[in-house]
Design brief:
The chain is α+β, with helices and mostly antiparallel strands. The protein folds into 2 domains: about 15-80; about 110-165, Nucleic acid-binding proteins (OB fold (Dihydrolipoamide Acetyltransferase, E2P), Beta Barrel), CATH 2.40.50. Helix content is about 20%, strand content about 30%.
Amino acid sequence: MPPLFQSYNTISLAVHAQLDSVLRLWQRRLGPDLLAVYLHGSLSLGRFQEENGDLDLLVLTARKLPREERLSLARDLLGDAFRFVKENTMCKVLSYKGNVFGLECPNFMDLVVTDTEPGFAGNTATNVTKPAVLETGAEIKVPLFIDVGDKITIDTRTGEYLSRCKE
């Protein structure tokens, strides 16, 4: 199968292969809604350094993608570590010779609870939990006193509730 991505001769076959696999995933998932993918940043300017560079892509679609669909595409690319990452969160993409093998996000994130059963006043026991959905769509266990709209701190390495945020 010929590569979907045509670029400068200055990048390695590994980077070509990584870009090609990303584009194939987007084509498979978006179909005719995928209009174009543009390179920008150091690669488009011919100053890309594989050992410490990053790839900046701009994706143009025929329709506005709902947030859930954008997150789903990102999860397909980055795996389970992505479930606690909000838009514009600085993360480190881990790769070896152009092959991404993980995402290193901050160890702690403050996230808003968007769905859970109602809490009850005075219910402060921390050893009893209930499911809660966070603003990123991730589901975790939280103490009974946590309510919708509460901002909580979670450990992204374990997915565990740590505390209610003090604002």
